[in-house]
Amino acid sequence: MKILVCGGAGYIGSHTCVALAARGHDAVIYDNFSNSSPVAVERIAELAERPVALVEGDIRDAAQLAAALEGVDAVIHFAAFKAVGESCEQPLAYFENNIGGSVTLLQAMEAAGVANLVFSSSATVYGDPDSVPIREDAPLRVTNPYGRTKLVVEELIGDLCAARPGFNALLLRYFNPVGAHPSGRIGEDPGGIPNNLMPYISQVAVGARDCLSVFGGDYPTPDGTGVRDYIHVMDLAEAHVRAVETLRPGFGCQAVNLGTGQGVSVLELVRAFEEASGRKVPYRVIARRAGDVAMCWADPSRAAEVLGWRARLDLQRMCEDAWRWQSANPAGYRSA
Ligand code: NAD
Ligand code: WQD
Predict the structure, then answer these.
(1) Rounded distance, CA 86 to CA 308, Å?
(2) Is 172 in the pocket of ligand 2 (CB under 6 A)?
């Protein structure tokens, strides 16, 4: 299949392009590099078992999308802004890029007759869940503008599928993606101070930052720190390959959780990373971060039923692979 991968130069997209190529699919990266580096595309080309094409373009550019969609069988749509805090400060930029960009992409797909879409959604659509593990039919409630953009786009895609029975979509709700390709050549490269736990821990371990701040030690969890469902990005990439292969006429629209089904606390992740890296990760416990939930992990059974997929890689592999990437590229793709 020929797959247009919008946002394919980013963290999850880059690993997915390598996985698509390994399965014999022709991936075309469509990215404006607003949060990624052309070096990632060079590294994808080095790891992929067949050529991966690049179109430098913006999903808000209808004419460029129209050209890129020629002959395409399915679209994987990663292209979005993703920082929760920034979305509270710049909500309009998030509405424009994440919602506006998605509408332009859907219009271009309809005009081009491309009827299969895999959309990057997030466990953030569950807000503060009533119970764990979280199933896809749990109440949806968002707590920040970023989360709202994911929920709105899920709903828009659902409406389009209802209006156009030929249109098929998978809404993939990722829990907490971490880790890197085992080669250490591609990985997560946040600019500035990382918002997320795993890249922060990696930067402390490599000596780029002094100390991890643990946000809250008084949650109703076994060790008082927040519990999340960390999932290896290689498992996530494989799930996208299954997703494009699952979409077919009459499939319709379904939301699917992508997680391991296991909760891990902040301190458990710190210890696992120390073991994998052989480095100390100094930390201090400070106040809770506004908007954080105590516990969040997936019921991954629908992914097994619908995609025939389950996560295989454990916490040790997540930490080892994250460390291999971080230690070989201490300044991310800027180290190249
Ligand atoms: P990322 O920022 O590394 O990748 C997104 C890519 O999209 C980047 O390469 C960026 O340059 C590109 N992009 C952004 N706006 C664009 C536009 N208008 N036109 C073309 N390209 C554009 O993020 P990621 O971590 O790989 O996340 C991918 C997707 O998964 C995002 O939609 C994100 O919201 C979602 N998601 C991520 C996580 C996570 O923790 N990483 C969790 C849940 C959901
Ligand atoms: C994990 C745990 C923190 C940083 C976010 C988004 C979500 C999704 C994934 C896109 C929590 C704690 C963190 C630090 C810490 N992204 N922590 N010190 O908040 O579960 O999810 O990323 O869709 O929408 O909200 O992930 O990695 O930020 O935090 O103690 O420096 O680590 O409190 O318990 P989160 P995270």
Answers:
(1) 36
(2) no
C-alpha to C-alpha distance for 331 and 307, rounded to whole angstroms: 36
Instruction: Check residue 183 and report its DSSP letter.
Output: T
pLDDT tens track for 21-64: 999 999 999 999 999 999 999 999 999 989 999 999 999 999 99
Q: In what order do the strands lie in the sheet with 295-296?
A: 264-265, 227-228, 295-296
Can you tell me which atom of ligand 2 is nearest the CA of 289?
Answer: 33
The answer, yes or no, to whether any atom of ligand 2 lies below 6 A from the CB of 87, is no
Residues 40, 9 contacting (CB under 8 angstroms): yes
Looking at ligand 1, which atom is closest to the CA of residue 82? 34
What fold is seen in the domain 2-178+230-259?
Answer: Rossmann fold (3.40.50)
Q: Which residue has the tokens 């014999």?
A: 24
Q: Residues 106-114: what's their mean pLDDT?
A: 98
Q: Could you give the CA distance from residue 18 to residue 49 in angstroms, rounded to a whole number?
A: 8
C-alpha–C-alpha distance, residues 94 and 310, integer Å: 31
Q: Judging by DSSP bridges, how do beta strands 176-178 and 230-232 pair with one another?
A: parallel
pTM for this structure? 0.99
For the chain, the distance separating the N- and C-terminal CA atoms, rounded to the nearest angstrom, is 32
What size, in residues, is the chain? 336
CA dihedral 194, 197, 203, 205 (to 10 degrees): 170
Joined together, the tokens standing for residue 297 give 């992990």
pLDDT, one tens digit per residue, over 217-246 is 999 999 999 999 999 999 999 999 999 999
Torsion sign over Cα 131, 133, 136, 137: negative
Q: Where are the domains of the chain?
A: 2-178+230-259
